[in-house]
User: Fold Large ribosomal subunit protein bL20 from Epilithonimonas hungarica.
Amino acid sequence: MPRSVNSVASRARRKKVLKQAKGFFGRRKNVWTVAKNAVEKAMQYAYRGRKEKKRNFRSLWVTRINAGAREHGLSYSQFMGALKKNNIELNRKVLADLAMNHPEAFKAVVDQVK
Assistant:
């Protein structure tokens, strides 16, 4: 009985990986063994990056809220503590947007918690 190798599926798999490696530098884009490793590593970076993005944005929001709160004589922790005490449930994303783009609305929030 002849050996069955299913080269159609093998080629499809390789084409898929080489397509993902498009734009890579040197042999990483067109040599199967090198491209496979490069794509696997890129997928690990992408997975990790999706988690890091959430951390980075939260950090950015905290920085913006802190800057906005300090303009009105409060630190970030004092401001957030006052928000919790007054049961104002605005998340950091919204507060950061108010502090950056709508300072008068942010001032109204600060005045309400003071």
Observations:
- The mean pLDDT is 96.
- The longest helix spans residues 32-71.
